[in-house]
Amino acid sequence: MALIVHKYGGTSVANVDRVKAVAGRVVNAARRGDKIVVIVSAMSGETDKLIDFAHQISSQPNEREMDLLLSSGERVTSALTALAIEALGFKARSLTGRQAGIITDTVHTKARIARISCDRILEALDEGYIIVVAGFQGITEDGTEVTTLGRGGSDLSAVAVAAAINADRCEIYTDVEGVYRTDPNIVAEAQKIDKISFEEMLELASLGAKVLQTRSVEFAMKNNMPIIVRSSFSDNPGTLVTKEDKDMEDVIVSGIAYDKNQARFTIVHVPDKPGIAAQLFNAVASSDIIVDMIVQNISSDGKSADISFTVQTSDTKKALEVSERAARELGAKKVDVNEDISKVSIVGVGMKAHSGVASKMFQTLAHHNINIMMISTSEIKISCVIDATFTELAVRVLHDAFDLAKH
Amino acid sequence: MALIVHKYGGTSVANVDRVKAVAGRVVNAARRGDKIVVIVSAMSGETDKLIDFAHQISSQPNEREMDLLLSSGERVTSALTALAIEALGFKARSLTGRQAGIITDTVHTKARIARISCDRILEALDEGYIIVVAGFQGITEDGTEVTTLGRGGSDLSAVAVAAAINADRCEIYTDVEGVYRTDPNIVAEAQKIDKISFEEMLELASLGAKVLQTRSVEFAMKNNMPIIVRSSFSDNPGTLVTKEDKDMEDVIVSGIAYDKNQARFTIVHVPDKPGIAAQLFNAVASSDIIVDMIVQNISSDGKSADISFTVQTSDTKKALEVSERAARELGAKKVDVNEDISKVSIVGVGMKAHSGVASKMFQTLAHHNINIMMISTSEIKISCVIDATFTELAVRVLHDAFDLAKH
User: Fold this and answer.
1) Which burial class, exposed, middle or buried, applies to A340 when counting CB atoms under 10 A from its CB (0-12, 13-18, 19+)?
2) CB spacing of B80 vs A53 below 8 angstroms
3) ipTM score for this prediction
């Protein structure tokens, strides 16, 4: 008998019939003797509808209110899912984020889980209930405020609950068959990955592969919680995300990701003296803007520096305010913004054991006349910022160059 | 400077534009220097949509889950309303039932408010916030379970919060201009009532005038909290519901109500011995069925009794089971059920000081060949059960007979 967490995303609970199908899947697992905790997202479209309502009212809606607003969608699906499981003759109980003991910090709209006080889940499991937890939401330590975990936060709810109750694994049900080596919309022959390390998945997730939320992968890695990503529309085995093992290194490049939602800021002609970067990025960080890549060059005039960085386009407006203020304070010439860029990245734990991967990537792009604006690397990843126009081309030629269709 | 509670029903917050209009109204009151607490219902149609979802899943959905499901609608409108007030430049904060300290008993789907722990509301008011509370919902004393207050429960939320914070008055905004002397759909010239006593309003509300929820009027009466019922679509003054005063007695009949959702049960030929009524109604009451009128007669055979009573048609099935079992146990002949009835009632505190009101009512009905099946009276009310076919006719002729268009 295993203890398993199931997580169902928005398309998996899109309507009453889909909710019933989810209940059927959960009940089948329970019939096999497993104890099940289910995490559900809002019905697909619901969260966007509520966001749209809020934006019809205010261009910058108060984030505390947004959390109260948006947390309602998951409550609806958790209650409906519990009802559907009961209708199949099993005991079920839905729990809100608060009732499930999901304690977060106080940063509205992107709260971090501080801890999970899972007594109530464990007690109800012992009493024979299937538990359905509203994903995406939590409550502050003092119990006063409702928080949400940011886009894709239900994945994090699932992994965190799985870790807290010491589950055997966390199964993330979605509308695709698993994690692909790259976007099948761009490369038709893209293969599904059977097994991938946490580290690779983390890079792929943070680079824009939208199957799993980044923080949920971090959390799973930290707690060594195996994740299975699979379809709620089929019985195929999906992709296992787990800790690195020997045979993973045979694959040099596991996947190719891209992210078009990036904006590049360049602070031009910053007088070159110690501490300017610190001053700039302190200002940016204190505005809760997450900076991705940073590059500093000597300017064309030789006496000052150009500092470039990228942020998510959703932060463009805030980042522009902050960097224009910083530019004035630093005595810089101006701030350039470019939203027509994308980041293309190759990922693989095998890179650690193979040389020449970076140069092969740069050569492949150069060979197709794709100019590289920024580069950033880690042990298992190489990212290039390029003109957004060439995104699909870059993904395709890299997929070819690294033989990804062959695995 | 007054402290005022505003309550907006489903049609008043039916869409984003209506929510903005509500915010405008609230802000106007705040500009006049008043402190405002707003209670909101779910957007019209939302609660019914969720109930429909649940019934697609289960014919008898678990009531605990229903409460979690249905409480989401008011959370949405409370957050949107707070955002809309902020967009007009005022500080606003939404509170769920739990956050507002609305503590109830544990009876899911029709919980009663036990007390309101209103510290958080008062503190936020002191800090200059306009508070928006999600109506219809509360939380159990131990904080574990979400409850709802039953249909129309947001009225009760509003009155209870108004009493708890010692508000000057509670303004209930709806889609009609106030309380009418009778249903304007039946009597075109029906007049709006300017002022009515709690007692009269309670009779009218419980007799089927759907403007205010009965329990909210009871609560207001107990706490002497003046209610103003008015339209959220106009600036007209509406109807003041307040404690009885001298000039109210000048009006003999304040209003005429009717209720078509009644079923009449008759237990025929019950052997006439002491305690039979007690035995029957004990059985009915222990099944949570609320009995309205009761009449006991000697049967046509002279040796036994016929006992008739009315219940809401929603309880017909349950009441039939109970009364057929009771009929067998009592040795009665049979149980007759008639759902084609209605109850027509005249209400007025002035009745206490005037005689002949009842006979005028009976004569008026008789004059139009409307047969009276049952009669029940209180100090300020006379109700007659008649054939449902004659409901509209009865309302019209009584409206005429008591000169209600003249006030």
Assistant:
1) exposed
2) yes
3) 0.82
